[in-house]
Write a structure and sequence with these properties.
The protein is α+β, with helices and mostly antiparallel strands. It folds into two domains: 5-135, Alpha-Beta Barrel (N-terminal domain of MutM-like DNA repair proteins), CATH 3.20.190.10; 149-270, Helicase, Ruva Protein, domain 3, CATH 1.10.8. Helix content is 27%, strand content 21%. The protein contains seven helices and ten strands. It has helices at residues 5-19, 33-37, 130-135, 149-159, 163-168, 179-189, 202-221; strands at residues 24-29, 55-61, 64-69, 73-78, 83-88, 99-103, 106-112, 117-122, 259-263, 266-270. Strands 1-6-7-5 form a four-stranded antiparallel β-sheet, covered by helices on one side. Strand 6 (99-103) and strand 7 (106-112) form a beta hairpin. Helix 6 crosses helix 7. The longest helix has 20 residues, at 202-221. It is globular and about 55 Å long.
Length: 276
């Protein structure tokens, strides 16, 4: 299960509470050779400057978590295609991991289940890191206070593209929305996944914005989606209204059979009756 913007924010808040102001004592990389070959994990030697540095802050934007260090270095984490970031009080019974940080009194482990990111990056080249430049950008983030209907809708109208590309594609108008949240959002807004944003009515534009903000609020309050595990290993409570878990089920609104199609680089579940 992917770590989307909401889950990344939950992890960043928990990490900041636990490790801000503490010094990194050591690091370890395991089982990462394949990920290193494709650039997902920095080479071991690249991490050497982080040892002895103090953690100044832990923030997130989009799907990316940024750990800022006192010596002008950063750790960039992006477990967006599945993975766990976990806190431990001792070395006993650690799970399998790709990256481990020994910090004063605590340990962090990071494991990736698919393609993601574990990078050490110096300040002067941070803007060359793909995930950082993608997510810490001028693109709107639904978790930030400046995410207003006016700003969102202006950019949505400018795009005039398929709704999936507009919300979860490479040139999306928002960051942090992946396929899972996308399916949930358009179901709430009663919009078909094949619709083009240039065909939306004013009512549909409002419904889409409301669906995004409601999803953010409900998932944050529930601690993340139900297959997400937080920093403390706790599974959480939010159950999507639409998505992969709804295959072969019926729509909770109209009781029609939920359809699943391959579309725009992924599988999408939706209700043909409710979503026009």
């Amino acid at each position: 299960m992917s770590v989307e913007g909401i889950e990344a924010r939950i992890l960043a808040r928990q990490m900041e509470k636990e490790v801000k102001g503490k010094t990194i004592i050591a690091y370890e990389i395991q089982n990462s050779e394949q990920l290193q070959r494709i650039g997902c994990v920095s080479e071991k030697s690249v991490f050497e400057p982080i040892v002895g540095s103090k953690i100044l802050s832990v923030t997130s934007r989009g799907n990316t978590i940024l750990i800022k260090l006192s010596n002008c270095w950063n750790i960039v984490l992006g477990p967006e295609y599945g993975g766990n970031i976990l806190l431990h009080k001792s070395q006993a019974k650690l799970p399998k991991f790709h990256f481990k940080l020994d910090i004063q009194n605590v340990i962090l482990t990071v494991s990736l289940k698919g393609i993601g990111c574990i990078h050490a990056v110096e300040d002067k080249v941070l803007k060359t890191n793909y995930l950082y430049t993608r997510d810490f950008s001028q693109i709107l983030d639904p978790l930030e206070v400046d995410f207003t209907f006016e700003r969102f809708n202006e950019r949505l109208r400018d795009k005039k593209q398929n709704i999936k590309a507009a919300l979860a594609g490479k040139n999306a108008v928002v960051v942090g929305v992946s396929n899972s949240a996308f399916q949930d959002i358009i179901y709430r807004a009663k919009i078909n996944p094949k619709r083009n944003t240039g065909t939306f009515t004013a009512e549909e534009e409002r419904a889409l914005f409301k669906a995004i903000t409601q999803l953010v609020e409900e998932r944050l309050e529930a601690g993340g989606k139900n297959q997400f595990v937080d920093l403390y290993g706790k599974p959480n409570l939010y159950i999507p209204k639409m998505g992969p878990n709804k295959k072969d089920q019926t729509c909770s609104t109209c009781k029609s059979k939920i359809e699943k199609i391959n579309y725009s680089g992924g599988q999408v579940c939706f209700c043909q009756t409710c979503q026009k």
